[in-house]
């Protein structure tokens, strides 16, 4: 799709300086701008690029005063960064305007689907499942039996939703994610083997949750594994059986949470955080990247390290850790001095 500079300015309530009829069909970084693209200038340290960019249209703040001639058409707005984000949202919304059911695909005769649904080729909806309005189910998605998916949710290619899962409204689940796979439950036997414990629970994902590519959320042994409203999970995260993740908690890639752990609301976990099972994380907790958490954490704490400790204590420990080579040399020197003193005393 192409948009003229004037159309963009009208949408953003901005003003055009230059050719109002110039058209753009894509976006670009200001330093890598190409003809036919739109970019923006919000950070002053990138101002030098506006004089050389090949982008056709540049969003700038109303108070921007150029020092040199600019070839691109300018659109002046109150906040260039927010305006650019609004345009990206518009483009994203247009790109997701898919509808209809492609073939081959399968919807069980007992399943119910709402209006405005999009279903890509080779997608599957199982027995007794209910899919709401305006749901987007991309190719090769598997929706098992007795699954509920509420309105406006998007399942990208290859998502697998196991039986009895419940997915809320306005959720986004990215490619390859698996919802409701068996929890890792095995009982050790006397002969050294392991007997699988049936996992008969389900997964509940509330509204406005986003789940990254290849993330896995296991069903509970009994009851439900629960992801509360507004949670944002990055790619390659593992949530084990019977966990509960509180509202508006965000986790970066490669976080792993063992079974039956309860995580509060408004938490932030860095990449590669590992959390043991059967513990509780309070509200408003920040956990630094690669931290190993083996004990419960109270609300309003920031922790780092393995084992995870309060940030003040962790920073002091890191200071000591960095000095270990120097301290080792000092210790060796002291040992030598003690040995020499002992030798001298023995001679006397």
Element layout with pairings:
Layout: E1 3-4, H1 5-12, E2 15-17, E3 23-24, E4 26-27, E5 37-40, H2 47-50, E6 57-61, E7 73-77, H3 80-95, E8 100-101, E9 106-107, E10 112-113, E11 118-119, E12 124-125, E13 130-131, E14 136-137, E15 142-143, E16 148-149, E17 154-155, E18 160-161, E19 166-167, E20 172-173, E21 178-181, E22 186-188, E23 194-196, E24 202-205, E25 210-211, E26 216-218, E27 224-227, E28 232-233, E29 238-239, E30 244-245, E31 250-251, E32 256-257, E33 262-263, E34 268-269, E35 274-275, E36 280-281, E37 286-287, E38 292-293, E39 302-304, E40 309-310, H4 311-322, H5 324-347
Parallel strand pairs: 4-5, 5-6, 6-7, 8-11, 9-12, 10-13, 11-14, 12-15, 13-16, 14-17, 15-18, 16-19, 17-20, 18-21, 19-24, 20-25, 21-26, 24-27, 25-28, 26-29, 27-30, 28-31, 29-32, 30-33, 31-34, 32-35, 33-36, 34-37, 35-38, 37-39
Antiparallel strand pairs: 1-3, 2-7, 22-23, 39-40
Question: How would you portray this structure in words?
Answer:
With 348 residues, this protein is of the alpha/beta class. The chain has three domains: 3-95, Udp-n-acetylmuramoylalanyl-d-glutamate--2,6- Diaminopimelate Ligase, Chain: A, domain 1 (3-Layer(aba) Sandwich), CATH 3.40.1390.10; 100-312, Hexapeptide repeat proteins (UDP N-Acetylglucosamine Acyltransferase, domain 1); 319-347. The strands form six sheets. The protein has a twelve-stranded mixed sheet, with helices on one face. Strand 22 (186-188) and strand 23 form a beta hairpin. The longest helix is centred in the last third of the chain and has 24 residues, at 324-347. The protein starts with a strand and ends with a helix. The mean pLDDT is 95.
């Amino acid at each position: 799709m192409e948009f003229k500079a004037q159309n963009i300015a009208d949408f953003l309530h901005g003003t055009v300086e230059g050719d109002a009829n110039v058209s753009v069909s894509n976006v670009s970084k200001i330093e890598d701008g190409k003809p036919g693209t739109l970019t923006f200038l919000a950070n002053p340290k990138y101002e030098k690029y506006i004089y050389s960019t090949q982008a056709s249209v540049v969003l700038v703040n109303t108070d921007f005063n150029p020092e040199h001639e600019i070839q691109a058409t300018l659109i002046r707005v109150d906040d260039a960064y927010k305006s650019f984000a609004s345009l990206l949202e518009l483009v994203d919304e247009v790109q997701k305007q898919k509808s209809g059911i492609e073939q081959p695909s399968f919807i069980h005769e007992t399943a119910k689907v709402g209006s405005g649904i999009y279903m890509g080729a080779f997608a599957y909806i199982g027995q007794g499942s209910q899919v709401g309005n305006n749901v987007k189910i991309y190719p090769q998605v598997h929706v098992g039996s007795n699954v509920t998916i509420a309105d406006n949710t998007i399942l990208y290619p290859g998502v697998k939703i196991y039986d009895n899962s419940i997915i809320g409204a306005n959720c986004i689940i990215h490619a390859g994610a698996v919802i409701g796979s068996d929890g890792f439950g095995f009982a050790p036997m006397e002969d050294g083997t392991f007997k699988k414990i049936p996992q008969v629970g389900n997964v509940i994902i509330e509204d406005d949750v986003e789940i990254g590519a290849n993330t896995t959320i296991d069903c509970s042994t009994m009851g439900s594994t629960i992801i509360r409203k507004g949670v944002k999970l990055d790619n390659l995260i593992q949530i084990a059986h019977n966990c509960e993740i509180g509202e508006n908690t965000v986790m970066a890639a490669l976080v792993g949470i063992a079974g039956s752990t309860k995580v509060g609301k408004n938490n932030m976990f860095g990449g590669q955080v590992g959390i043991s099972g059967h513990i509780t994380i309070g509200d408003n907790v920040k956990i630094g990247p690669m931290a190993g958490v083996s004990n419960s954490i109270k609300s309003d704490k920031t922790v780092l390290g393995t084992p995870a400790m309060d940030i003040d204590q962790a920073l002091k420990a890191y200071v000591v850790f960095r000095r270990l080579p120097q301290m080792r040399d000092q210790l060796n020197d002291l040992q030598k001095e003690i040995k020499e003193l002992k030798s001298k005393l023995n001679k006397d």
